[in-house]
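User: Here's a structure from my thesis project, written as structure tokens. My advisor, Dr. K., wants to see whether a designed sequence matches the one we expressed. Can you design one independently, without my sequence as a hint?
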């Protein structure tokens, strides 16, 4: 058994890691988590699993942030990536001639 303040803190940590939704329409996952935490009979292994989930979710969020920061061309198409690579080394690609 854990103290109610620790469970409340853990509950809020889990909700922080979930995608944001309006308060008027909580997702089924949020409803399930709330139902689970409202029962004050939390076992020790359930609390430990919840803490591990929070750590995992934080790590995944940080991983996605770092991936976007250090791989800015990841979401670009091939043409845009080539243009940006050329600009990085101080060159501009010539404009392509298109038959009108």
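Assistant: Designed independently from the structure alone:
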């Amino acid at each position: 058994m854990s103290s109610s303040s620790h469970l409340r803190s853990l509950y809020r940590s889990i909700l922080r890691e979930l995608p944001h939704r309006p308060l008027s329409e909580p997702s089924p996952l949020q409803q399930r988590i709330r139902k689970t935490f409202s029962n004050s009979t939390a076992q020790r292994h359930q609390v430990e699993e919840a803490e591990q989930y929070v750590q995992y979710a934080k790590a995944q969020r940080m991983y996605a942030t770092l991936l976007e920061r250090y791989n800015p061309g990841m979401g670009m198409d091939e043409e845009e990536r080539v243009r940006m690579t050329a600009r990085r080394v101080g060159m501009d690609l010539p404009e392509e001639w298109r038959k009108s």
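When you compare it with your expressed construct, this may help: The first helix runs from residue 4 to 17.
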